[in-house]
Amino acid sequence: MRWIYISPHLDDAVLSCGGLIWEQRRAGTPVEIWTLTAGYPSAEPYSGLARALHAQWGFASAREAVQARRREDRLAAQRLGAVTRHFDFLDCIYRLDGRGRHLYEDVFVPPHPEDTDLPTKITKALTPYLGREDVLVSPLAIGGHVDHVLVRRAVERLRRSVWYYADIPYLLAHPESLPTVTSDMSEERFRVSGTGLRAWQEGIAAYASQIAVLFESEALMREAIHRYWSEYGGVRLWRNE
Predict the structure, then answer these.
(1) Per-residue confidence at 44, pLDDT binned at 50, 70, 90?
(2) Which of 62, 104, 82, 100 shows the shortest CA–CA distance to 14?
(3) By CB count within 10 A, which of 158, 160, 189, 231 is most buried?
(4) What does each C-alpha distance from 130 to 31, 36, 73, 136 come to in angstroms?
């Protein structure tokens, strides 16, 4: 039985579930991380949002950013013992409408009307790689990042039993949103050992370009993950009752 963590971006699954992934691999469970928005934009000009993020990440171009982030993701997965699969959908900061205009200048917005067919495209891309016994783990889309929202819709279109993870770091910033998002779901806690915690932190640390944006520093990242682990003893997942 293979566990497949669906990651909107090149970091989300490890950020949210890295300790559980490590524990599952230690127990011999096959685990894969499938990242959806790992594609390369075809051309400039970039949106103002993309340019700002490239500068924060330390990259001069989208190609450089995606190449580096793919390397970071492979390193993170290696540290946890998981397998990666990168799909070629574009991050929302690069997506265009039918007239070549950028769809998004903010990531925390509802899906653009010209982007609402993306879940169907994602579902079609995932289906050939799925086995009957595979276990899917999807983001809850806490925080409302448009890519997380669209990815959750895509996974739910598969009409399979799905586990959901709470999106870190958005959960840490908005814990009050969790009860509403999971009100009709049951929660299960998966224990993560101290060694698993350290592996989780090391997995996240592999995303060197993202640490300052998400946590300000690696030290603060390690503190945040440790606090979460201390409170819950591991990783929480949810599923529909």
Answers:
(1) confident
(2) 82
(3) 158
(4) 13, 14, 21, 9
Per-residue CA distances from 57 to 26, 27, 208, 213, 222 (Å) = 32, 35, 9, 8, 19
CATH number at residue 60: 3.40.50.10320
Return the sign of the alpha-carbon dihedral for residues 213, 174, 70, 36: negative
Q: Is 47 left (phi over 0), alpha (psi -120 to 50) or beta?
A: beta
Instruction: Look at the alpha carbons of 89, 143, 107, 110 in this order and tell me if their dihedral is positive or negative.
Output: positive
Task: Look at residue 42 in the predicted model and tell me its pLDDT.
Answer: 83
CB 126 within 8 A of CB 92: no
Angle 166-71-158 (CA atoms, 0-180°, nearest 5)? 45
Nearest partner of 17 among 188, 166, 162, judged by Cα: 166
Instruction: State how far the Cα of 205 lies from the Cα of 218, in Å rounded to an integer.
Output: 7
The residues, ordered by sequence, that sit 6+ positions from 204 with a Cβ below 8 Å of its Cβ are 11, 14, 15, 18, 76, 211, 221, 225
How many structural domains does the chain have? Answer: 1
- The interaxial angle of helices 62-80 and 12-26, nearest 10 deg, is 20
Beta-bridge partners for 5: 33, 137
State pTM to two decimals. 0.97
Is residue 81 very low, low, confident or very high in pLDDT (cuts 50, 70, 90)? very high
| Beta carbons within 8 Å of 217's beta carbon, 6+ residues apart | 211
Give 177-236 pLDDT, tens digit per residue: 999 999 999 999 999 999 999 999 999 999 999 999 999 999 999 999 999 999 999 999
Q: How confident is the model at residue 241 (pLDDT cuts 50, 70, 90)?
A: confident
pLDDT of 13: 99
